[in-house]
């Protein structure tokens, strides 16, 4: 596990170095690149190259061209047309960008509709791919648009013009979890430009936070074993830690609406790799495994059942929504013993001083699966696709590649140096325990602004996310960052990040995948509250046989083939 | 009538009620009061939530009175630069759209209400079939595109120009409330269909015309699907689309939170949900009393006897 | 009241006009009615029937490049896939039960409300209550479900507090599949009864006041007046509403069910619309499949509306066709 972390930090530094070198080389030095991409005369076969200067030469387009980008509308981007980032791109690219802004509400439906009817496609789509898990432009699905002739492959462009892209792919390479594998469609082509946010907080999606006032009142230590955890929760429930004479404490609570907020998932990770990001699949030595049918899963269910039926994990977890969790966590009567979340600041009210001081992070439990944390694979989201309607694909690609550079990535998140950020003080540290790089002067994240595009474009998002310096950091953020760092060291490394199916394979198993998830979620709840008894063999057998009816065997067969294919 | 006479009439009227009717009225009054309370209480809760700060709403403390009084829900909504265009667009779509709707609907409902019209059942089936079967999003989208109506105001009006459901309701009313004697009498007088329609049918049907107008108007007022499907310029968006976007934008996924501003926004979203309800439906509440005026009891019934 | 053309017009009525000109008058009359129909009919043909050609992709494998008229024919494959869905019968059963329950339960309350509002002596009271009654219709589904969950919260809801004062704890109703349809339907009735009563109030507005006066003179009580004058006016409208709504059974809306659904009640709350939504979540929308499901829904709706119409005609004499 430590090995993995070192590798990730190392890659961060490598990409920094590479990006700096690239930036240094392309700063308008005027020196032409090698003759590999001679613009005129020689037919190298890359469409649109006649309008485009060779890699490294700026401005990008030989003569000003007009481009049409379709982008999602967002209140935090005040006006794409006059946006600072737009102006920077237009200058470096010698282009004029016309924006077609579509409402975020159901944009997936709208974009798919315009594609399906071949209506009025723009030159490129940026950031309209949908939400994670629902990306119709994902590496699996995008090949269908390619087959219908709507989007174009980018491989030759990456070869000819994509220095930043190539650096990015190299930096995050590595078997079936490497970004290049995760981005390549089943026919071997890459059809989109990515964005990833390699932030420690995001990669540790399910962290447990415990009420320290309870621990103090009952003079308890943070547990590390399953039994210790059970004892702690029992004490929370029975010994009135909030001291009001009522048994109103909820030792552990959450919601099922978001898998990261369901403590059941956090608990299961102690027994078996619980990949909540991708259909609970994990791998070992190239072999694909499905967690919910393993014996370890059953052991986990027994433990979960014990906790829930004794009221230690509140059963309303499985019916209530996120709002209710927030209400409970912030309740002035101090009734919440613990919860899981990906971000402490999303649950606890920042302006409620008492609630802010209540919770501390707790490490994962040491169970049959060792002491591991649920992880989020760095899956590159689709931020840029070039359509077949584009007349200047080379120009557009070079713009995309430019966005992947450090300079652009920083501008697109933090703004301009001096104005919005500055170098961090000498020797300072970030909340994640890493040497700090920059300090934010004027916050541009998730507020209405006109400096960048709010992360809809290809980039390395949150470039300095792990190394931001805060002169005065709020307690919640501090605790969240520390807990994230601790979990980061224990990330599970045997997850399956993504399986990229061919359209034919997807035909067969697309519905099965969805049904499996729903069935597992339903049974997890039922086993927990006791409607299904995990100790009863007949119930367990019936549970397993249901998977066969749904089609798990076919899914695993095809999945294994894909995994082997992706592992190379 | 003088005041005393008025009072006397009322007293006499009250005294003249038979006891069984007194019970009847008592029960009816109680039922209505209970129903009124049942409806009013949650509404007060909605109003209170809309006037509370986001934090108060999220903590669930708000019951019947605003907690931590604040207009921030409304302020966020009205701060949006497109709210005004949203309102004016929706008013335009509602007025023009409803007029168009009513013309089409009445023109269809009257002939179809006439059992003596040859081929009536065939026409009925032709219309009703479309209520059940629909080609789906793609063919409709392509049609609008091919007619060059994409991103045009007419795209909000024409595709939904006739609701067969509403038309059938109107037809039922025509069938049940336009006396056949009236039609025959007018025919004897040499009155043409068109004249009968305009001078007799319409005035006699004020209640149903008022109700169907209300249905269409409210339909337009709440409409957003056509807008999101066919419109791309924000200047043309109806109110609901603007409101939906405001709502969605503030519905930040908690995993992306990194600073204080965002958490405040998240709570704001909760208060805004309630403010939005009031913002979008207060105009309807103002219009309804006008509609009620048309619920006039049989104005021209005496026309036959005369 | 003999009016609605319950019988065709009498033939051979003696009148002052000759036969020849009467025929001419007939044709002329109907010609104008057909003209009336022309505009709505052309609208229907262009904007409803023409796009209906798109239904064919339910029987095809849709390819955007080839459009609606292209693509390969696959016959009933899409339907077979739909019927073979895991737990299909359960999903279909849930859709039909919740929907039919909702439609039938939603009939009496608006009628009673309309009759009550019409019978009250104080017009001002009537108008006030009426204004209040239709307001919930405008509350968004999200807020309705949110209010419902708050009220029924076993920890902090109103009923829980009441229960505690009597010494017992209420169960989490949202965890129970059995309770789901009742929660769904009755919250819907609360929300829509007022709005649905408007059409009945309009119908009652058409009642001749002389009838009421005559009845009072004859010694009828207020209740009897309601039964014999008001109710018969409402019945044809009520019947049409039932028939029309039965034609919407399969279109059970997605949003409210989805918000109320959770892992413990899903066996009762998974309906066609929520299932279709989850399938669509793999990202790429299969338009052929979606159209096939829509087509199936339409066929079932058609059957239901025709059956209900026949039943209504048998029971009451009036129907849709």
Element layout with pairings:
The complex is a heterotrimer of chains A (568), B (306) and C (321).
Chain A: H1 2-25, E1 65-72, H2 84-93, E2 95-102, H3 107-116, E3 124-126, H4 142-147, H5 155-161, H6 163-171, H7 179-183, E4 193-196, H8 200-203, E5 207-211, H9 212-218, H10 226-238, H11 263-268, E6 281-284, E7 287-290, H12 295-309, H13 322-329, E8 338-341, H14 344-347, H15 353-356, E9 359-362, E10 381-386, H16 393-403, H17 406-414, E11 421-423, E12 438-440, E13 459-460, E14 468-469, H18 475-488, H19 503-529, H20 537-550, H21 552-567
Parallel strand pairs in A: 1-2, 1-3, 4-13, 12-14
Antiparallel strand pairs in A: 3-10, 4-10, 5-8, 5-9, 6-7, 11-12
Chain B: H1 3-15, H2 19-50, H3 54-59, H4 72-79, H5 83-112, H6 120-132, H7 137-146, H8 164-177, H9 180-188, H10 193-204, H11 206-222, H12 225-230, H13 239-249, H14 260-293, H15 302-305
Helix pairs in contact in B: 2-14, 4-14, 5-8, 5-11, 5-13, 8-11, 11-14, 13-14
Chain C: H1 19-52, E1 60-63, E2 67-73, H2 77-83, H3 88-105, H4 108-119, H5 123-133, H6 141-152, H7 158-166, H8 177-205, H9 209-217, H10 222-246, H11 254-260, H12 266-269, H13 272-280, H14 287-316
Antiparallel strand pairs in C: 1-2
Helix pairs in contact in C: 2-14, 3-8, 4-8, 5-8, 8-10, 10-14, 11-13
Q: What is the count of structural domains of chain B?
A: 2
Gyration radius of chain B, rounded: 26 Å
Q: Can you tell me the number of structural domains of chain C?
A: 1
Tell me what the CATH architecture of chain C is: Orthogonal Bundle
Total number of strands of chain B = 0
The CATH topology annotation of chain C reads as: MetI-like fold
What is the third-level CATH name, the topology of the largest domain in chain B?
MetI-like fold
**Mean pLDDT level of chain C:** 86
What share of the residues of chain C lie within helices?
Answer: 55-70%
Mean pLDDT of chain B: 82
């Amino acid at each position: 596990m430590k090995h993995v972390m070192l590798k990730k930090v190392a890659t961060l530094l490598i990409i920094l170095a590479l990006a700096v070198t690239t930036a240094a080389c392309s700063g308008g030095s005027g020196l032409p690149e090698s003759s590999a991409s001679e613009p005129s005369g020689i037919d190298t076969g890359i469409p649109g190259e006649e309008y485009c200067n060779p890699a490294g030469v700026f401005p990008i387009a030989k003569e000003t061209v007009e481009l049409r980008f379709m982008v999602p509308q967002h209140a935090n981007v005040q006006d794409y047309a006059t946006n600072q980032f737009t102006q920077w791109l237009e200058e470096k690219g010698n282009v004029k960008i016309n924006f077609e802004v579509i409402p975020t509400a159901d944009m997936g439906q709208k974009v798919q509709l315009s594609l399906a009817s071949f209506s009025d496609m723009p030159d490129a789509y940026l950031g309209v791919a949908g939400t994670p898990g629902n990306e119709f432009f994902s590496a699996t699905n995008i090949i269908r648009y390619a087959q219908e002739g709507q989007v174009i492959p980018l491989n030759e462009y990456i070869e000819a013009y994509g220095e930043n892209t190539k650096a990015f792919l190299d930096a995050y390479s590595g078997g079936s979890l490497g970004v290049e594998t995760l981005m390549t469609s089943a026919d071997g082509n890459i059809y989109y430009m990515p964005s990833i946010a390699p932030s420690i907080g995001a990669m540790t999606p399910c962290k447990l936070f415990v009420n320290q006032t309870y621990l103090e009142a009952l003079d308890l230590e943070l547990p590390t074993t399953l039994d210790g955890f059970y004892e702690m929760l029992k004490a929370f429930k029975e010994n009135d830690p909030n001291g009001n004479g009522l048994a109103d404490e909820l030792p552990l609570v959450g919601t099922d609406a978001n898998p990261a907020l369901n403590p059941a998932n956090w608990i299961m990770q102690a027994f078996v790799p619980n990949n909540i990001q991708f259909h609970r699949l994990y791998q070992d030595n190239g072999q694909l495994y499905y967690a919910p049918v393993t014996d370890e899963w059953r052991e986990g269910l027994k433990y979960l059942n014990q906790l829930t039926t004794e009221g230690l994990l509140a059963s309303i977890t499985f019916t209530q929504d996120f709002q209710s969790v927030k209400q409970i966590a912030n309740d002035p009567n101090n009734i919440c013993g613990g919860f899981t979340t990906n971000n402490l600041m999303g649950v606890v009210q920042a302006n409620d001083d008492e609630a802010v001081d209540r919770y501390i992070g707790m490490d994962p439990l040491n169970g049959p699966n060792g002491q591991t944390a649920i992880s989020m694979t760095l899956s590159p989201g689709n931020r840029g696709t070039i359509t077949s309607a584009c007349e200047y694909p080379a120009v557009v690609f070079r713009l995309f590649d430019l966005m992947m550079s450090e300079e652009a990535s920083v501008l697109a998140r933090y703004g301009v140096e001096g104005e919005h950020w500055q170098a961090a003080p000498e020797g300072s540290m970030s909340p994640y325990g890493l040497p700090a790089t920059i300090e934010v002067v004027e916050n541009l994240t998730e507020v209405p602004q006109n400096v960048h595009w709010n992360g809809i474009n290809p980039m390395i998002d949150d470039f300095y996310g792990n190394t931001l310096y805060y002169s005065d950091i709020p307690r919640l953020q501090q605790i969240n960052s520390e807990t994230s760092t601790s979990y980061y060291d224990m990330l599970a490394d045997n997850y399956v990040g993504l399986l990229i199916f061919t359209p034919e394979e997807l035909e067969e198993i697309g519905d099965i995948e969805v049904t499996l998830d729903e069935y597992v979620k339903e049974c997890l709840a039922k086993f927990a509250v006791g409607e299904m008894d995990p100790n009863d063999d007949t119930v367990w057998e019936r549970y397993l046989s249901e998977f066969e009816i749904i089609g798990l065997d076919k899914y695993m067969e095809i999945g294994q083939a894909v995994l082997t294919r992706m592992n190379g | 009538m003088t005041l005393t006479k008025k009072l006397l009439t009322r007293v006499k009227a009250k005294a003249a009620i038979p006891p069984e009717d007194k019970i009847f009225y008592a029960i009816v009054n109680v039922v209505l009061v209970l129903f009124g309370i049942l409806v009013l209480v949650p509404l007060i809760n909605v109003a209170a939530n809309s006037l509370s700060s986001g934090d108060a709403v999220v903590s669930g403390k708000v019951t019947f009175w605003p907690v931590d009084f604040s207009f921030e829900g409304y302020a966020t909504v009205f701060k949006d630069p497109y709210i005004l265009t949203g309102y004016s667009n929706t008013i335009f779509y509602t007025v023009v759209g409803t007029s168009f709707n009513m013309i089409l609907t009445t023109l269809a409902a009257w002939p179809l209400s006439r059992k003596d019209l040859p081929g009536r059942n065939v026409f009925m089936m032709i219309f009703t079939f479309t209520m059940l079967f629909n080609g789906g999003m793609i063919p409709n989208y392509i049609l609008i595109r091919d007619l060059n109506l994409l991103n045009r105001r007419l795209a909000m009006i024409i595709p939904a120009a006739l609701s067969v459901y509403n038309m059938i309701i109107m037809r039922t009313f025509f069938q049940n409330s336009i006396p056949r004697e009236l039609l025959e009498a007018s025919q004897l007088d040499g009155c043409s269909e068109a004249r009968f329609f305009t001078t007799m049918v319409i005035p006699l049907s004020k209640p149903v015309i008022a109700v169907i107008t209300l249905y269409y108007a409210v339909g337009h007022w709440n409409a957003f699907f056509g807008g999101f499907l066919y419109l791309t310029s924000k200047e043309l968006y109806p109110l609901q689309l603007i409101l939906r976007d405001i709502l969605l934008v503030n519905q930040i996924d908690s995993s992306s939170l990194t600073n204080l501003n965002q958490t405040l926004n998240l709570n704001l979203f909760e208060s805004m949900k309630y403010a939005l309800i009031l913002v979008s439906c207060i105009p309807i509440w103002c219009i309804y009393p006008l509609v009620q005026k048309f619920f006039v009891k049989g104005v021209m019934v005496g026309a036959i006897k005369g | 009241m003999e009016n609605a053309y319950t019988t065709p017009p009498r033939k051979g009525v003696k009148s002052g006009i000759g036969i020849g000109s009467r025929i001419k008058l007939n044709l002329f009359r109907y010609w104008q009615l057909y003209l009336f129909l022309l505009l709505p009919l052309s609208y229907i043909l262009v904007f409803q029937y023409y796009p209906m050609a798109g239904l064919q992709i339910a029987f095809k494998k849709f390819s955007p490049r080839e459009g609606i008229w292209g693509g390969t024919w696959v016959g009933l494959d899409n339907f077979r896939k739909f019927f073979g869905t895991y737990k299909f019968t359960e999903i279909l059963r849930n859709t039909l039960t919740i929907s039919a329950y909702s439609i039938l339960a939603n009939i009496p309350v608006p009628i009673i409300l309309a009759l009550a509002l019409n019978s009250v002596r104080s017009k001002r009271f009537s108008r006030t209550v009426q204004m209040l009654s239709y307001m919930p219709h405008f509350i968004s589904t999200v807020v309705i479900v949110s209010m419902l969950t708050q009220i029924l919260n076993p920890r902090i809801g109103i009923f829980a507090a009441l229960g505690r004062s009597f010494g017992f704890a209420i169960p989490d109703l949202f965890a129970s599949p059995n309770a789901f349809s009742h929660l769904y339907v009755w919250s819907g009735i609360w929300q829509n009864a007022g709005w649905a009563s408007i059409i009945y109030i309009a119908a009652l507005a058409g009642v001749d006041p002389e009838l009421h006066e005559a009845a009072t003179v004859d010694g009828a009580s207020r209740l009897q007046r309601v039964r014999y004058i008001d109710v018969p006016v409402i019945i044809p409208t009520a019947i049409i509403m039932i028939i029309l709504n039965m034609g919407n059974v399969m279109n059970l809306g997605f949003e409210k069910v989805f918000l109320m659904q959770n892992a413990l009640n899903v066996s009762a709350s998974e309906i066609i619309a929520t299932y279709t939504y989850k399938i669509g979540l793999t990202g790429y929308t299969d338009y052929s499949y979606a159209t096939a499901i829509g087509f199936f829904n339409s066929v079932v709706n058609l059957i239901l509306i025709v059956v209900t119409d026949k039943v209504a005609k048998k029971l009451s004499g009036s129907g849709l066709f």
